[in-house]
């Protein structure tokens, strides 16, 4: 996911938020992963905003995308210039209104933003796990989130919301714990990666592992594989944009020059932009975490995990209401994949709203300001607790899926 928000409107912000941690799975109670390996103790970093009501019925869990974190909204101090990654969506009077809802967001396991991952110390050695960290899945991430929700004393979530890999977690929640979710909002996501998506992730992983500084994943005392990680991010970043957005933003314009250099400097603006994004990413992310999280996304396959190969059977386990949203220019998770999941939901008689939003900015469109998305989410959440259809006005059973 990209980083678009550099400043915030203090008047409509949740203000200062605190990163907290929750640890479970100590000795003798380790988490048994889907791979069969065990992991413990497990720490989740999380943040909350809004107020949990008396009957604990207004909680919304937001699941972050691939390289996101628990800092979904607000700032970490009064002079912090950078708000959370979904500041435009979460706050007082915003579509996910913290005057009404208690919002939870946790960093996934396998990550490097405070939750247990390959950079964490292995209790057996005291050194970072590195590639000794077990492979984790989207299902493992969701099971950890459920432990956090239990810890917070919340029985049923009002909604689970997320985009991209966060949307995979939303889908997993809805079929793994159907009695714990009233409404689900998967955005710009899929029930399984296409061969193309796996291919891009593999190129990114190979870029990291080909960096000699990666050293088999054991680099914490010798220097990080910064070049490999930067290239991996550049590859990923291309998939988050679109042909139209890149043409609009860069076209073939040159960077700080009037003619071609005839060497391997960054002649074009798009080259310079990708180098900047890659180097910026190195400052905040761990290379091994990138390997583990992309692998978890590649392994995700809702129909195999919950439907014995049938997507319709997988959603037979679900009972919540859904709002599914795709974007016209998202070629990483194109609309046909959302249509397939909506068809499977409807074959199970589930209450589903679907909308394909016209947006030129590619996969990352769900992170950008969009009045259509705002009104869809606000309307859906407002109606999700009511009797009858949960679709916002004008989108009964999906504004653009009449053929379903």
Automatic annotation (TrEMBL):
Enzyme class: transferase
EC number: 2.3.1.31
Active-site residues, record numbering mapped to chain: 164 (nucleophile), 330, 363
Pathway where it operates: Amino-acid biosynthesis; L-methionine biosynthesis via de novo pathway; O-acetyl-L-homoserine from L-homoserine: step 1/1
Oligomer and partners: Homodimer.
Any Gene Ontology CC annotation: cytoplasm
SUPFAM superfamilies, sorted: alpha/beta-Hydrolases
Pfam families the UniProt entry points to: Abhydrolase_1
Transmembrane segments: none
Function as written in the Swiss-Prot or TrEMBL entry: Transfers an acetyl group from acetyl-CoA to L-homoserine, forming acetyl-L-homoserine.
Lineage of source species: Bacteria, Pseudomonadati, Thermodesulfobacteriota, Desulfovibrionia, Desulfovibrionales
Keywords from the named record: Acyltransferase, Amino-acid biosynthesis, Cytoplasm, Methionine biosynthesis, Transferase
Similarity-based family: Belongs to the AB hydrolase superfamily. MetX family.
PANTHER family: HOMOSERINE O-ACETYLTRANSFERASE
Biological process annotations from GO: homoserine metabolic process; methionine biosynthetic process
Catalytic activity: L-homoserine + acetyl-CoA = O-acetyl-L-homoserine + CoA
Domain AB hydrolase-1 residue range list: 58-367
Binding positions (substrate): 233, 364
Compartment annotation: Cytoplasm
GO molecular function, a single term: homoserine O-acetyltransferase activity
Record-linked NCBIfam families: homoserO_Ac_trn, PRK00175.1
UniProt-recorded name of the protein: Homoserine O-acetyltransferase
């Amino acid at each position: 996911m990209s980083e678009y928000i550099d400043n915030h409107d203090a008047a409509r912000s949740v203000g200062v938020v605190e990163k907290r941690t929750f640890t479970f799975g100590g000795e003798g109670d380790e988490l048994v992963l889907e791979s069969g390996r065990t992991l413990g103790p497990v720490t989740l970093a999380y943040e909350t905003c809004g107020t949990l009501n008396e009957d604990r019925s207004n909680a919304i869990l937001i699941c972050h995308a691939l390289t996101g974190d628990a800092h979904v909204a607000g700032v970490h101090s009064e002079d912090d210039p950078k708000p959370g990654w979904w500041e435009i969506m979460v706050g007082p009077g915003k579509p996910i209104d913290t005057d009404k809802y208690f919002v939870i967001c946790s960093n996934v396991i396998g990550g490097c933003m405070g939750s247990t991952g390959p950079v964490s110390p292995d209790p057996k050695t005291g050194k970072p796990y590195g590639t000794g960290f077990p492979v984790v899945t989207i299902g493992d991430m969701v099971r950890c989130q459920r432990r956090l929700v239990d810890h917070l004393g919340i029985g049923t979530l009002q909604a689970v919301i997320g985009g991209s890999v966060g949307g995979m977690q939303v889908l997993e929640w809805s079929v793994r714990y159907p009695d714990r979710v009233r409404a689900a909002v998967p955005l710009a996501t899929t029930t399984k990666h296409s061969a193309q998506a796996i291919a891009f992730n593999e190129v990114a992983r190979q870029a990291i592992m080909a960096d000699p500084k990666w050293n088999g994943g054991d680099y914490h005392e010798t220097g990080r594989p910064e070049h490999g990680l930067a290239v991996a991010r550049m590859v990923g970043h291309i998939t988050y944009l679109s042909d139209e957005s890149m043409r609009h933003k860069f076209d073939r314009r040159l960077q700080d020059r009037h003619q071609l250099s005839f060497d391997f400097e960054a002649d074009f603006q798009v080259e310079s932009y990708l180098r900047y994004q890659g180097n910026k990413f190195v400052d905040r992310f761990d290379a091994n975490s990138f390997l583990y999280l992309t692998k978890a996304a590649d392994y995700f396959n809702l129909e195999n995990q919950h439907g014995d190969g049938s997507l319709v059977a997988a959603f037979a386990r679900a009972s919540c209401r859904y709002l599914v949203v795709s974007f016209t220019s998202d070629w990483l998770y194109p609309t046909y994949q959302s249509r397939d999941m909506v068809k499977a939901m409807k074959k199970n008689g589930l209450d589903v709203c679907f909308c394909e939003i016209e947006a030129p900015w590619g996969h990352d469109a769900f992170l950008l300001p969009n009045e259509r998305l705002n009104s869809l989410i606000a309307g859906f959440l407002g109606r999700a607790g009511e009797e009858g259809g949960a679709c916002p006005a004008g989108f009964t059973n999906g504004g653009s899926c009449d053929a379903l």
